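User: For a benchmark we're assembling, each entry needs the component sequences followed by a predicted structure for the full assembly. Here are entry 17's components. Please fill in the structure.
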Amino acid sequence: MVTYAAPLDDIRYLLNEVFDYGKTVAGLPGYEEATPEILDAVLEEGARFCENELLPINLSGDAEGCHYENGVVRTPKGFKEAYQAFCENGWTSLACDPAYGGQGLPKTLQFVLEELICSTNLSFGMYPGLSHGAYNALELHGSDAQKSLYLPKLTDGSWSGTMCLTEPHCGTDLGLIKTKAEPDEDGSYRISGTKIFISAGEHDLTENIVHLVLAKLPDAPPGSRGISLFIVPKFLPDADGSVGPRNGVRCGSIEKKMGIKASSTCVMNFDDAQGWLIGEPHKGMRYMFTMMNVARLAVGIQGLGLAETAYQSAVAYAKDRRQGRALKGAAEPEAAADPIIVHPDVRKNLMRMRAIIEGGRALALWVGTAVDRAEKHPDPEARQAADDLVALMTPIVKAYLTDAGFELSNTGQQVFGGHGYIHEWGMEQLVRDARITQIYEGTNGIQALDLVGRKLGQGMGRLLRQFFHPVQAFIEANQTDPEMAEFVLPLAKSFAKLQQATAWIAQQGLADPEEAGAASSDYLKLFALTALAYLWTRMVVVSKPQINGGMKGAANGDTAFHEAKLATARFYMARVLPESSALFTAIMAGKKPLMALDAEAF
Amino acid sequence: MVTYAAPLDDIRYLLNEVFDYGKTVAGLPGYEEATPEILDAVLEEGARFCENELLPINLSGDAEGCHYENGVVRTPKGFKEAYQAFCENGWTSLACDPAYGGQGLPKTLQFVLEELICSTNLSFGMYPGLSHGAYNALELHGSDAQKSLYLPKLTDGSWSGTMCLTEPHCGTDLGLIKTKAEPDEDGSYRISGTKIFISAGEHDLTENIVHLVLAKLPDAPPGSRGISLFIVPKFLPDADGSVGPRNGVRCGSIEKKMGIKASSTCVMNFDDAQGWLIGEPHKGMRYMFTMMNVARLAVGIQGLGLAETAYQSAVAYAKDRRQGRALKGAAEPEAAADPIIVHPDVRKNLMRMRAIIEGGRALALWVGTAVDRAEKHPDPEARQAADDLVALMTPIVKAYLTDAGFELSNTGQQVFGGHGYIHEWGMEQLVRDARITQIYEGTNGIQALDLVGRKLGQGMGRLLRQFFHPVQAFIEANQTDPEMAEFVLPLAKSFAKLQQATAWIAQQGLADPEEAGAASSDYLKLFALTALAYLWTRMVVVSKPQINGGMKGAANGDTAFHEAKLATARFYMARVLPESSALFTAIMAGKKPLMALDAEAF
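Assistant: Structure for entry 17:
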């Protein structure tokens, strides 16, 4: 069984001390009541729920999986009860609009909660996660009637939602979808087609399931400009929201897959199912994308959550497991062997996990708080600036944090040696669960293309400025302090490489988009490493003054916390950030080495 | 289902053209009959067997797994028949001594065969693989009576073998084992204790199982100097080899694990089991280690084999799957979309797989042929030199190729997008199976410690010279050719970094072994990347003259093969090797960033 306690100290530190939550989030109009005290209460309640209700059914849920029979899907033992409690405790309604029964709390809190959920039970988190995605799409693009019918049910969790995009022959390229929508006389549509990989497409947790379905109208222009978005409920509701007759949508089978086994991944067959158009015809892709940004941030946070559990478990094991002796001589000569945490290579693994997780959490919450500003800031320019930062950083959060989630789950597993490969220890489940996060909501390769192909050029580089300007200003403000040099110099070096690579891609990519494509995934990593260097240095600025003149174990209980921050920042600069130079060299080698071979030569 | 055809062209190219097999292996005394023609025949027969018999039961074996009931283990459907055919076709006896019924072929052929087996069915390969390990240990250290009783049965495959090392509280640190061996009056011993993670510990493939068991005699000195090695057969054999009564060893359970599910991983309970001492008392660890080197090379080759299947499958999928358009405009405008192999990021993934696999195969076969020279070369100095190279490179082959096997299986899976996560496509199985290779036969962290802690210092750096001298000479011989500069310069640069890091570790490690430990795993990777750069440049030297003046599709059918070698070498230098500079920087940062935090701070 894995070891996990919600990292509330680190979350509080980041929100309150680094990102000034009380001002930057709770200071926004509408969030006046979401004070740091409320934040604290939500954090503690959320931690308790996740640790006590979700974690205990995670390993058993993986072993049991979902079961399919005759169109019905049964979730593993305990999921129904946990979902019931989840709804009753108000976790589905946290960031929903009070107009529909929601608590109207900031998105920042939703992101924090999602980390905790994913640390303890990613499979479980899929069900409310998908509902929340459907909620967002409907809230933004649905009609008033649609909103008042569906949003209260999604808010209280009695109905769940899905996103039905992928078909057997297309996932990334949704322009190819074949699902059809024929207009009916009553203003609704008849949807027919097959969707695959539909998370939460069928299950036994809720009384109804609201499918949001991409389909083509008869007069649709070809490709992605001809796709419309429809609501297709499993049971047709009355106007008052009571559940009526079964609609023509059924689950044909569920997938046998590598991980997230307690999350049902369904083939959904739509056979003349009744559906209702969301927004205008042919704008489905646009609607999906507005929702997808939030979903992609949430997936990045999934990677972070899994890595945190892997880290805590690896630390506990490394302190407990005794093998061999410290290289400098027995650390605990009275015992038969030393705990493996004495070994530098084990230590390196733990420090790497810690440096990337804490830096990654800073990245996620930096962008997370910007989501709230983008929505609620009274100044339109500030809203736009925040929105630009979110748009720029979303592919980076998604791809980098999920790559990190997978890498670090594996690192944690490795610390366990052979026991890491055995189901009962829980580590191999983290690895299998983490693997999907690199693939869904747009593979990480697609995220990198989004970054170089869309985000870099958008508004003549307007988005980029939301990262480049503050980092530049931060470096200038701190570069004269000799005590900061060990942090600011490597940051500045990596930042210079990022600027140079950005200019190179912008220039080369104009003449030949394949050059941008060839650089894309290495560039995204270089960007992420630089962003983490920036955020680590910001943490140093916050933590350094709070250390009691280097006195270890001083009366101030926080000193150890802040000393650990500095030590971890130093590790990041010395042993993680150097990867940025290799990435830079690879980027600047251009597309030629990749594209030299004809496809037939493979 | 995965796509696989044994890469015989590449294997032939490496053995015949790069490593001059006809002279360096078939020219050894005793291997006169193992001509390149025999090699060819073995390769083709082996490929046929693996493709037709082992691959078809790989995915089903994973789904079904092994089943345990009342001490009996049932392997999945088809395994018994495949094992029968495997023995009848002589694959168990390939590299065994003719004195015991073996074919006496070179170890090189055994390594090549093992790649093919692991590409098609790693779980299956575990059974004969473990037997071969037991064969090697007995052949080197058993008495004549033991050899004539057990080796013919291991050679013809009617009996299988195991290595019983790990116990619940110890794996890496075998000095802690508790299993006891009490001398009996008849010269045998009574073995009692519990061993875990015993691959092939119990199964239904053979009529008997020969356990090689580490245990402590009553007078054993403490720690790893007090461990002895015993033969403990499942059924006690008569002197003529017919199977007699059941011995006191039973399988208590099998593990539920992440992968290699068709390989039984057993808890073995020894309860006054009759055993016979191998060699002298208290020398069991030494005996295990002589065998372990070969086993570690074989595990490295497992990683290679899995990566090859992932590569071929990803190539097939990337040519078949159509999503989106080439960034420069439609490549196949008449189709609805282009095959994804047009995308630079997909291409980068495929090229990376190819560059590391082909370079890794060169590494494995370079060391593999040295195993034969170390055993059979008539000149004792040449034997020693070859043995030194094998000893030096073994941890590198094991750790680097298994890390690569896992990384590249994941890369292949990623090319499949969502389909890669679904069982029926076979890609996620490759990932799960590959994961164990980084852990067993000594975790990759332990391999790195073996490299810096044992191999670097051995004989005052004598082992190192077997790598440093030929590479130095090769660079000098080729550095004046301007056409070779694009390969020799990056090689020389990485080699210089490796030399510098080696000197640094040797110096720092003397004063503080934790410095060597802190550098170990990054150093091993730097070493491996440099070794691959060396081998890629050697391949360029072989292939370059065979290209017809750059005429593509020229009459010479091999031109495309050699052109691809050069293109892949260029990719390696431009987009893989740059990682060595980041590793160098990380190594030179020393242990301080790792060890700054107290254990309690984690």
